[in-house]
Input
Amino acid sequence: MNPWLETLQKKNTQLQNDGLVRRLQMRESPNAPEVQLEGKTLLSFCSNDYLGLSNHPSLAEALAVGAVQFGVGSGASPLISGHTNAHAKLEQALAQTQNLHIPNVSSCLMSTGFMANVGALTALASLGQISFFSDSLNHASIIDGIRFAKTCHQATVSIFQHSDYDHLKSLLELDQNTLKCIVTDGVFSMDGDIANLPKLLSLAEQYSALLYVDDAHGFGVLGENGHGSLEHFGLNSSLLVYMGTLGKAAGISGAFLASGNLWIDWFTQAARPLIYSTNTSPALSHALMNSLELMHSSDGATRREKLFNNIHVWHKNAVFKRWHCLQSSTPIQPLMIGDNNETLFVSRRLKEKGIWVPAIRPPTVPINSARLRITLNADHTPEMVYQLLHTLKEIETEINE
Ligand SMILES: Cc1ncc(COP(=O)(O)O)c(C=O)c1O
Output
C-alpha cells in the first residue's frame, strides 16, 4: 500500500479506537439559542455568542452599509494599502475600552484571536532573549505562539500548574533572563474559571515581567461595561498586554491587541500575521463598531444581566450524582464526565432529545477529563436552562439504571 495511505489509515483507526474522531456538523440556520441541524430544531448550548449578537439585525444592517461605504475586501495587508478609516476608527474605539487600565493605550486589529496570540508572542520574543511563563491550561493559540517564539527566537518557556501562583513564583525566582512575560487566559476556555489577575500582576511587578492576558472569553462579558477582565478587577499597569477577541461576545470575528503605544507599534513592526496577511474586511470593522456600541448600551447591560441570571439558574440546579461541575462564574460551565465514550454518549443522547452540546475530549482537554462544555448566552431563557438540566438528569438516570 502507498505509505501515505497506510499511515493515514493507521492514524484514523487509532482515533476511532480511542473515541477521538472529530466530525464537522453543518448548522442549517444562523446562530441562535435554537438552531437547525440535520433537519431538526435543537436547543444550542455550545456557542460563544455570549451576548446573543451574532445574528442581531442591526449588526447585519451595519455589515451591509459598511460593505457599500468602505468596501467588501480590504485589498491588501494593513502596511501595504489595506488599512482603512473603518479599521482605524474601530482600533481607536477598542483602545478606549482599556484606557482606564493601560496607560497610553493603543490597539491594533488582528484577523483572529489565534493569529493575535501567535503574532504578538512571537513579536515579543523577537526583542531578545525572553522567558515565557505560561499557565498549563492556556489556549492552544498561546501554546503555538510560544512554540513559534521558541523555534524562531530561542525563547524559553516554563509552564506553571494551573492557577498555582506559588509555582509560578518559584519559576520566576529561578529564571536568569531579564525579559520575562507571564501569559494567561483571562477566562480559561475549557474550565471557565477566571485567572487571578491582581495576583499575577503583582508577581509581574515584582519580577519586572510583562503580563499578557488573552481575554477571548472575558471581553464583552466581564466588568461593569463589559470591557473584560482588566475592568472586572480594576487593574491599571503599563506592564499589561491585552488580547480581546471579536468573534465571541462581540458576535462577529477578529481580535485586537491593546497595550501601551510603544508595544502596539512594535507589533506593527514585528507581528508577522499582521504584516503578511490581507487585512480583515472594512465592512466587518464597520459592523464591529455597531457591536461595540450595543455592548456598551443599556441593551448590552441588560444582556449581561440576563446572561448572569442564566448562570445563576444553572449553578443552583446543576447537581448530578455521576458527574460534577467545575467552579465557574462565567458563561462557560463544564460538566465533567471523564470518559471519552461516555461523554460522546451523553452528547448523542442530548441531541436525540433536542439539545446540542458537543463532547470535548483530549487533546483539547487533559486525558480523562472529557466533558460537556456548556455555554450560556443572554438569549437563552431560564426555561431553556431548566430544560437542559432536566434532560441531563434523565440521561444520568438512564446510565445509572
Ligand atoms: C482563550 C482563547 N484564546 C484565543 C482563541 C482564538 O480566538 P479566535 O477564535 O478569534 O481565533 C480562543 C478561541 O476559542 C480562545 O478560547
